[in-house]
Amino acid sequence: MRHFEYIDGVMHAENVSLARIASEVGTPVYVYSRATLTRHFNVFKDAFKGRDVLIAYSVKANSNLAVLSLLGKLGAGADVVSGGELARALTAGIPASKIVFSGVGKKPAEMRAALTAGIRMFNVESEPELEALNDVAVSMGVRAPISFRVNPDVTAGGHEKISTGKAENKFGVAWSAAEDAYARAATLPGINIVGVDVHIGSQIDDLAPFKMAIDKVAGLIKRLRAAGHSIKIFDIGGGLGIPYGANAPAPPLPSEYGQMVKNATAHLGVQMVFEPGRMIAGNAGVLLSTVTYVKRGENRDFLIVDAAMNDLIRPALYDAYHEIEPIVAPKPETAQVLYDVVGPVCESGDTFTKQREFPQMNTGDVIVMHSAGAYGAVQAGQYNTRPLVPEVLVNGDLYAVVRDRPTVEEILKTESIPDWD
Ligand code: LLP
């Protein structure tokens, strides 16, 4: 069941009216459903019942502390890609032993913080990074647990900008160099090899590329073991796609993904790690926005809304589709109109959709942009000095503002004019 539904003609998140949140908190605002986050996490977990797995939620998808704390209580670990995300995961109460650290550009200070915390493992993406990590670990008198993220040269991912598993991408150790990288790692006093990691992309709506990558890595694991390395963990990364709207192609269900992975890895005797992000958070959140003006153009009608590309950049950056609905259910007799839905930012790219059919709208109407719980608020900025969009978490009949909207004064306070001007 969906937790964003019309109840008595008004869209609700669980039992809270989104009209109430829009009026009490103001728009634009992100709203997340605790029940949906919980359900998505449990569906993913249940797909691996009976197997030794760590679900390291990919913090980058939605890093709000309230979201991390909820998922942590449900048993999630965390996949982090910066010292900042590490601090968030720890602050939210996720144990260090369930945290994996990914990313191509980890800096020594970030490595030190992660070693001090005692994280589960580093997913190392290059030989220079391996040497840097070894230096930091040796200087601290510890050994860093590592997997190499290997690049299996598999095509996957919903958009060129979010595909990561091709040889031409910046991610992971080149397939042909992987065995040498393990051989080098085995000689280093500050490194402890524990596994292999792969992540091929995001919004993947087909099991075939996952299967191809897993089979390739399974072969690698056998060769590495034959060479004397102890491979206890296989991290398959994230990437499972979600449906963006009722008419969008439906990606495989987590249960189908789970069955395929379980079959493909049964013979390996490894602990599996997963790094799902979008699958957990994407359809657990919406962005609310108010129509500021309805503008008649030369040959089209524009809905100028108060959310913009700085709040939700996915349509501008990846041509992403987000289903949009009015917060008040339209009456059957309401005329349908083609609109371009645009924000107030001074760029043509500040467009959420073009020429889409909606019920006729008026100034002051509130719209709901769906599937905005992942890569929405986390990618927001303050372009045009538009304050960072706030976030709300709903829980049954309750809601809480879990990130405030900063005031313009607060934004300006972080800047200063040097006294030479
Ligand atoms: N693990 C690693 C190493 C990753 O780089 C990512 C996502 C994930 C896990 C989580 O992938 P997911 O399960 O969420 O697909 N901003 C883009 C998506 C970028 C994904 C980056 N990496 C978007 O809005 O579509």
Oligomer: single chain
User: Which word captures the global form?
Assistant: globular
Supply the CATH architecture of the largest domain.
Alpha-Beta Barrel
Q: What is the CATH homologous superfamily assignment of the largest domain? A: Alanine racemase
The radius of gyration is 23 Å
Q: Biggest sheet, in brief?
A: 9 strands, mixed
Compute the number of structural domains.
Answer: 2
Bound molecules: ligand LLP
The percentage helix is 25-40%
Strand content: 25-35%
Number of helices: 12
Structural class: alpha/beta
Mean pLDDT across every amino acid position = 95
Q: Which fold does the CATH topology of the largest domain refer to?
A: TIM Barrel
Describe this structure in words.
With 421 residues, the chain is α/β, with parallel strands linked by helices. It has 2 domains: 4-31 and 283-412, Lyase, Ornithine Decarboxylase, Chain A, domain 1 (Beta Barrel), CATH 2.40.37; 34-280, TIM Barrel. It has helices at 18-25, 34-46, 65-73, 83-91, 108-117, 127-140, 178-186, 207-226, 254-265, 278-281, 314-318, 408-413; strands at residues 4-7, 10-13, 16-17, 29-33, 53-58, 77-80, 99-101, 121-124, 144-151, 173-174, 191-197, 233-235, 271-274, 285-296, 301-305, 324-326, 336-342, 351-359, 366-369, 391-395, 398-403. Strands 4, 14, 15, 16, 17, 18, 19, 20 and 21 form a 9-stranded mixed sheet that branches. An 8-stranded parallel barrel has the order 5-6-7-8-9-11-12-13, surrounded by 4 helices. The chain has a 3-stranded antiparallel sheet with strand order 1-2-3. Helix 5 packs across helix 6 and helix 8 runs parallel beside helix 9 (254-265). The longest helix has 20 residues, at 207-226. Bound molecules: ligand LLP. Residues 58, 60-61, 79, 102, 162, 199, 202-203, 237-240, 275-279, 314, 318, 374-375 line the site of ligand LLP.
